[in-house]
Design brief:
By secondary structure, this protein is of the alpha+beta class. The chain contains 3 helices and 3 strands. It has helices spanning 4-11, 36-43, 50-62; strands spanning 30-32, 67-71, 84-86. Strands 1-2-3 form a 3-stranded antiparallel beta sheet, with no helix packed on it.
């Protein structure tokens, strides 16, 4: 019969742990916040709403965030009126 200690020993690695890589990456769906209003209005086919676009830009200037991650699942030319945003827009 197998003891509890044998099971624990089988499930654990021996020796030091190894870190394979450390780094940062910019995801392909990362949009610079200064360009985000243009990006948003372009993918939602709303470029004709210039007053709303200017208001959106003013709202962006108040926010301290540097980048927004738009989750469009690789289809930036879709016809949807919604864009999923990771983070907040104040």
């Amino acid at each position: 019969m197998v003891t509890v200690e044998e099971v624990r020993k089988a499930q654990r690695a021996e020796g030091p742990a190894t870190i394979m890589a450390i780094g940062t990456a910019t995801p392909s769906n990362c949009v610079d916040q200064s360009a985000y209003p243009d990006f948003y209005f372009r993918i939602t086919n709303s470029e004709h709403m210039t007053e709303l676009k200017e208001k959106f830009k003013r709202m962006r200037e108040v926010d301290d965030q540097e980048a927004l991650h738009a989750l469009d699942r690789g289809n930036s030319k879709r016809k949807s009126k919604n864009v999923r945003v990771h983070g907040t827009i104040n």
